[in-house]
Structures are given as C-alpha cells and as structure tokens.
C-alpha cells in the first residue's frame, strides 16, 4: 500500500465512524460516503478506496457489503452495480445518484452531496424520535389504563347503575359499546386488520397501479406530502444540475433524472421529458405537469433565457433542500402538542364516562 493510502487508512482507523451492531444506520452510510468523497478528492483509485473503507468498517454487515462491492469492482463491474445489488441498504436515491455520478464523471461531488443530505436526514430522524418518545409513552399508558377500566371496572358499576334506574350518559354508553364490541369481536377485528395489511403489502409489491395510487395519496398528506415532494424535487433538480454541468445532452439528462422512486412524480417528469422532445421549453413542460413550485419554475425559465440553466438548477436544488428542512422542523413542532391534545381528549372522555354516572349515583343515594 502506498504512503498516501496508508495515511488515509490510519486516519480512518482511529475514527469511530461505524457502530458495532449489525444494523446499518443512516449515520453509518453518511460517514461512509464522506470517506469516499474525501479520498476521491485525493485521486485514490476507486477499488482501493472501497477496500480501505471495508478494512476500517466496524459494522460487520457493512464490512461484508463493501467487500462484495470491491469484489465486483475487481471483476470489472461499475461501482453502481454493487450499490444496486445492495439498494435495500443504501436506498434508491443513493444508487441513482451514484449511477449519475459515473456517467457525468462527478462521483466526488455526488458522494459529498449524499453525505450532506443523509446527515440532515439522520438529524431530522433523531429530532422526530425525541419529540415522539415521551408523548407516545404517556399515550400508551393512558390507553392501557383506558382498556383496563373499560374491561374490568366499568362492568362492575353497570349493574349498580341499572338497578338504580340511572340513565347512563352518552360517554358511558360509548365506553360500554366499545367494551362489548372488543369482547365479542376483538379477535375478528384484529384478524381483519391483519389481513388487510397483508393484502395491501402484497398489492403494493405486485401492482404498479396500486403502488402509484399510494404514492399519489402520500403526496397529499399535509406537511408529510410537502416534505416528500421537496425531497424528490431536490433529487431531480440536483441530478439535472450535475448532468448539464457535465455537458450531458438535455434529453439524456432528463431521461436519467426522471428515475425517482415515487411513481406519481416520476410520471410527471416522464411527461415533461416527452414535451421537451417535442420542442417545448423545460420550464413550460414542467409547469404543464404541475411539477416543482413557482419559484423553481421561474428560476429555470430565467436560466433558459440567460443560458445559465445548470446554475439555476443548482439554486433550485438548494431551494428544495431548505423547504424540506423547514417543513420537517414544522412537523416536529406540531407532533408533541398534537399528541398532548389526544391524551387530553382521552382523559376527558374517560373521566366523563366513569365519573358522571358515579356523581349521578351519589345524588340518587342522597336523594333517597
């Protein structure tokens, strides 16, 4: 091994990039891509880079995957071949962008971008987990208490209420209905839910039409849909930027960039590609498909008019990255109060269902 390679090896050996567990986290992958990008900047051979990363990976599964990728590189396969083989670990976006990097000669920038993107994704996931942990714990505790009261406590009061001819309030009647329903039909209900889940999963895997419908529906979920759109718009605009910067013909650049995992958005980009082939401007074609937002379309139009389309697409990608970050922060800020409100409603409903008839019973007893 050369002195330069040895220096990189020693540097990464003493950095705890990878976890000891078999699970490969988003952070693991982000740090891997940062390593690859850094070593590509020093013009090390790609095979040696992957071998160095494999040697220094503390995660057993990641080490095996990198060794497999290195093996296929030795056989003459492209780097993207190895990442496609392990797409379930690295994700569709990583595979598609690495394929793009090979075609455009911009692998170094692609890996740097992926590392930055995955780091933000990892931080956002951690924020969401922290925001969810305590409210969900409390909510589950309340639901557990709710079920115990409905199943065991409420029936004991029922005969007493009825013997005193106390009219049960609507809250208590709803609780009793729930208790009766889950006692008589609980297993059947759970079986139906399980069967529906299995059927939906099967159709999602085997029916492109059903999958496209689900993808389109997800895009209309408040906030979540906006985050997903921004993610794919970022991928699309950054992909176009890299290719046009590398002097890739427009038709080919659009054909490569349209390959995203959301089928609903992919169909829009495919239609835009056909319009461009028929002589329409990219900004017009995307606007006809209601793809991207007004700011991005204005930037693309300005780039077409000035001859700086690649630079404008880079600005678009940063614009959508900021949108994704802002919307994610907004979602996180809404999670805790929403769960707190749900807990409050459950507690109020439980209190009204149990204590209102008890107060009526007390009033009846004193009245008697």
UniProtKB/TrEMBL annotation:
Highest taxon above the source species: Bacteria
Bilayer topology annotation: Multi-pass membrane protein
Keyword Cell membrane assigned: yes
Alphabetical UniProt keywords: Cell membrane, Membrane, Transmembrane, Transmembrane helix
Pfam families membership: T2SSF (PF00482)
Keyword Transmembrane helix included in the entry's annotation: yes
Intracellular or extracellular location(s): Cell membrane
GO CC terms: plasma membrane
Annotated TM spans: 132-154, 174-202, 214-234, 339-359
Main location: membrane
Domain Type II secretion system protein GspF: 34-155, 240-357
UniProt family annotation: Belongs to the GSP F family.
Protein name in UniProt: Putative type II secretion system protein
Native organism: Helicobacter cinaedi
Gene name for this UniProt entry: epsF
